[in-house]
Amino acid sequence: MKTFYVTTPIYYANSLPHLGSLYTTLVADALKRYKRQRGYETLFLTGMDEHGINVQRAAERAGLQPKEFVDRVAAIFQQTFAAFGLDGAHGGYDIFMRTTAPFHYAGVQQFWRRVARARTPKGNAAIYKGHYEGWFCAACAAYKTEDEYSKPAVSGESPRCLVHETPLDRVSEESYFFRLSDYGEALLDLYERRPDFVWPEERRNEVVSFVRAGLQDLSVSRLKSSVAWAIPVPDDSAHTVYVWFDALTNYITAIGFGDEERERVIGFEKFWPAVHLVGKDILRFHAVYWPAFLMAAGLEQPRAIVAHGMWLDRDGRKMSKTLGNTIDLDVLHRHFSNDTVRYFCLREMVFGQDGRFSYEAVIERANSDLASGLGNLVSRTLTMIARYCAGTIPPPEIGEENYLQAKRAGVNPDPSDHASALELARDQFTTLFDEYGFSRALEVAWSLIARTDKLLSEAKPWELVKDERQRETLNAVLYRAAETLRWLAVMLHPVLPDATRAIWRQLGLTGDPADLDPATLKWGEIRAGTRIGEVEPLFPRLDRKKVMAEIESETKGQGTNTVQESAKAPSTAATPHNATHANVAAPAELISIEDFARVDLRVGEILTAERVPKSDKLLRFTIDLGEPEPRQILAGIAGYYEPEKLVGRKVIVVANLKPRKLRGFESQGMVLAASVGPEDRPVLATFVEDVPNGAKLK
Ligand code: MSP
């Protein structure tokens, strides 16, 4: 069986889980589920980076022994990942790695020995002892060259790291060095031979330029007297292993390198090489240092280093504790379903590029794409099957004798157009997923939702059902919609594991979409006569104002929860932390695109229009918005329009307006009109071109 091994970075145990750590783990989770569907035996690794000066200091501040401290932080990470459905019990990661595990300790020492014995491509010893003199950033766990720190304003002060803006540590001590400077050509050759080794190309080019500019040897140890909380260098107890050398090695020790029992149960031989998912912030460690270490150790290179962008706040600023704009995972989890968070992260951020996070944007995606898009298609299709087809999947065929009827209803009697659209989308979807194009893949899936919505709006099953001669047309339309939902459930499973299982059940299907390969989907495999399941809402609409008010009150005044406080709390604390203000209010006069997007504007077709008795202002319409049932909407335009003349007119409707009663009639939306002249004469907004009912305006 083909294997697929995917890893996330192991997260520093000196801070709490945050949107970034959640994100990489979530993407790896989706990839694993996808590859599993595609027939691979998968392995997904995530975990904790638990050594180093920063963790040592964080533990001291918490008044705990380092091991006790990291145990507690690791428990918080595991609970957080479990809450988001990313743990093994939910089909997520297979191994939660911890670098304090004894087998890792032994594996790192074995790896070190292998590298230390090696000769570089230029025939030198790969590791040698020297003296390091320079600056070290504890937060980055990296040595800093002059272009990587800002000079102190006051002489005598330490320079500051450009990434973390924290003061650097002066290091002047004996150290072991890895002779990285001898690996430049071999690395360039690797990037040349394997153009997909670093993804995306833009990042690959950065790596190539960095290596071309010339590599310096890398200090790979610290004196034990400076950093005690680390793995000892083999055969030299005065030194400890540099935390990145230790951390990178986790990718192989986790699966059996250096440990016979793990090798037998998991298997380095079986699963290596891995696809490493990393944030672009740590690309150099993965695409330069790690491959060089592996070359020295004589081990195979990773399958790929895949670098994603960073989540920024709504104003495009980096998230940081100092700015107080990090995202409280507890709040995120309380207000949004796991599928919503997954969908948002994979749809909103173009993988590889930076993306902006705001709670408003999550609500918008939840309402427009999930509730009104996928959720609405599922519920309208299944409700109609329940009502019009006695709750069973109807037969797909339209007999030749009914071709004309079908055409009259605007339905192509031949399903092959629809089937081809599905096949094309299926192929594009899998190709895009294979290339980490998650956001585009989801767009492709959503184009099927739009297509099927259009099919329903144009065929109007609620009209067809009134005419027995249109029975086959009605059946065929609902069959096509149900079959599309089956395809969507399989394709979208890696992104929406819970919702797709619910769709599956609601369609009355047995088995699990997790076990089906999207690439093998074939038209027509949902069987007519299948009894559908209970129809239940998948994605309840979120009340933006209410949710935002709650989030604001939950995050307001709440200081940043420190890792020290959290680690001190009983380690059973079941929630993620680091609450801070996520959203900064926009200026009052101007609205953001997200504000605008909250208004759900739809194309509607006026089906009936009449005057409201005893009112000279109001007209009462029924308007088709592409939903299972037309809506009743009232408008104060009776003085200017003859109702009969408006039937068939396409209008713009505010579809997410709270319903209100006017003269005893409930108005379920509002029709847009320009207000002209001193007497505010209403002029209905309409379209020159043909547009389907229900189409969204944006
Ligand atoms: N411990 C090292 C990694 C060692 S891997 C052998 C480390 N840890 S970290 O806790 O700082 O996590 C870094 C990773 O978290 C990033 O590479 C990225 O995957 C993720 N993110 C951290 N902040 C992020 C954002 N703001 N946005 C997206 N992902 C981010 O570095």
Overview of the structural elements:
- With 698 residues, this protein is an alpha+beta fold.
- The chain has four domains: 3-107 and 240-355, Rossmann fold; 125-237, Beta Complex (Methionyl-trna Synthetase, domain 2); 359-520, Isoleucyl-tRNA Synthetase, Domain 1 (Orthogonal Bundle); 593-684, Beta Barrel (OB fold (Dihydrolipoamide Acetyltransferase, E2P)), CATH 2.40.50.
- Helices cover 40% and strands 18% of the residues.
- It is built from 24 helices and 27 strands.
- Helix 4 (102-117) crosses helix 11 (283-297) and helix 14 packs parallel to helix 17.
- The longest helix is centred in the middle third of the chain and has 30 residues, at 359-388.
- It is elongated and about 95 Å long.
- The protein starts with a strand and ends with a strand.
- The relative contact order is 0.10.
- The structure holds 5'-O-[(L-methionyl)-sulphamoyl]adenosine.
- 5'-O-[(L-methionyl)-sulphamoyl]adenosine binds next to strand 1, helix 1, helix 7 and strand 14.
- Residues 9-12, 20-21, 23-24, 49, 247-248, 250, 278-279, 281-282, 310-311, 319 line the site of 5'-O-[(L-methionyl)-sulphamoyl]adenosine.
Describe the protein's topology.
Elements lengths: L2 E10 L6 H19 L3 E9 L3 H10 L3 H18 L11 E4 L3 H16 L9 E11 L4 E3 L4 E2 L9 E2 L7 E10 L5 H10 L4 E2 L1 H12 L5 E2 L1 E3 L8 E2 L2 E6 L1 H6 L1 H4 L6 H6 L2 H4 L3 E5 L3 H15 L6 E5 L2 E2 L16 H7 L2 H11 L6 E2 L2 H30 L14 H6 L7 H19 L3 H22 L1 H4 L6 H21 L5 H10 L37 H12 L7 H6 L24 H5 L3 E11 L7 E6 L6 E5 L7 H4 L3 E5 L5 E3 L2 E3 L2 E2 L1 E4 L4 E4 L11 E2 L1
Parallel strand pairs: 1-2, 1-14, 2-3, 9-15, 14-15, 16-17
Antiparallel strand pairs: 4-5, 4-8, 6-7, 8-10, 11-13, 12-13, 18-19, 18-21, 18-27, 19-20, 21-24, 22-23, 25-26
Helix pairs in contact: 2-3, 4-11, 5-6, 13-14, 14-17, 14-19, 14-21, 16-17, 16-19, 17-19, 19-20
